[in-house]
Amino acid sequence: RTMIAATKQEWARFRQVVVNCVLATDTMDQDFWDERRDQWAICFGENATAGESQAHKNQKATIFMEYIVQSAVTGPSMQHYQIFIKWFRRRILQSHDRASDAGQSNEFDWFQHELDRFDKLILPLAMDLDKCGLLAGIG
Asked: Is 4 helix (H, G, I), strand (E, B) or coil?
């Protein structure tokens, strides 16, 4: 434990970052996503403050870690289309079968949902990470 954080203050900060990263895996909460985007703009946007206080550095590190976690969560969407379909076909069929078994119509348009997810989550996330420059040279 002391290797991660030597003081109670460092431990509290570490815990806060871990909790924030776990919460960042919730890609369906639009309010949380909007708040995260606002924080990103404060830290890395065109009008980002150049303050170098410890609080500002902590905020930048936290939001960056949240974006990295979000990238990991959305990673399966970034692979080749055929692989993407292979992994999600089962999910589509199971959803359809459950709806049929329950006597309901399966009105959910999965493909439109995925397109919306790309437009509202994945592409902005990728563009923000590219613009911030912290991953430059990685590939």
From this structure: coil
